[in-house]
Design a protein that fits this description.
The chain is built from three helices and seven strands, in the order E-E-H-H-H-E-E-E-E-E. With 185 residues, it is mostly loops. It folds into four domains: 2-55, no CATH class; 59-94, no CATH class; 96-131, no CATH class; 134-185, no CATH class. The longest helix is centred in the first third of the chain and has 11 residues, at 42-52.
Length: 185
């Protein structure tokens, strides 16, 4: 049998593992009871083979298996997709240059990137957020003139509205529903 160990090719014979005759004198390092069964036998060869050696006909590192095995793999992110920092050939990808208008917000220099370089659509031609956030009832953000939006009550609760406790609700038109508040004395 032929195996690689630390980049060196060696040949292991049954005599080397089992320690018989002239092979024993030359191979004490290979003789071991690796299965701890009290007998040095072929089962120990299987353990030795699976733990320490790589078969000579093993194709080597496999890009996409999630294990970076250098020097042929600089990275291995578990897939063979380009554009995610580790290429399909397991080489580190140099980040793309920041380009406003390509639809990819590449922070920290881009706050947004809506795929165009037009102004007036919430994301400017320089990929910065334009003006105040638009008020959209139902987006989960309470923005003036909304009193609330979903679970966002703009920091208000029953107590801040003068009640003694309870739970606020938000109506479908983004106005506060205080019917769940209580006024106990």
């Amino acid at each position: 049998m032929c195996y690689w160990i630390r980049n060196a090719l060696i040949t292991i014979t049954a005599g080397m593992l089992l320690g018989s005759g002239a092979a024993l004198a030359a191979s004490n390092a290979c003789k071991a009871d690796l299965t701890a069964d009290g007998v040095v036998n072929f089962a120990d060869l299987a353990v030795l083979k699976s733990v320490f050696f790589q078969r000579c006909n093993d194709p080597g590192p496999t890009c996409g298996d999630g294990i970076a095995q250098g020097p042929t793999e600089q990275c291995d992110d578990g897939n063979v997709l380009d554009g995610d920092g580790c290429s399909s050939t397991c080489s580190i990808e140099v980040p793309l240059p920041v380009v406003c208008g390509n639809g990819i917000a590449q922070g920290p220099t881009e706050q947004c990137d809506d795929g165009n370089v037009g102004d007036g659509d919430g994301c400017s031609a320089t990929c910065t957020i334009e003006g105040p956030l638009p008020s959209v009832c139902g987006d989960g953000l309470a923005v003036t003139p909304e009193q609330c939006d979903g679970a966002d009550f703009g920091g208000q609760d029953c107590l801040s509205l003068g009640h003694t406790g309870g739970e606020l609700g938000c109506a479908a038109d983004c106005t506060i529903d205080s019917s769940g508040c209580s006024d106990l004395l």
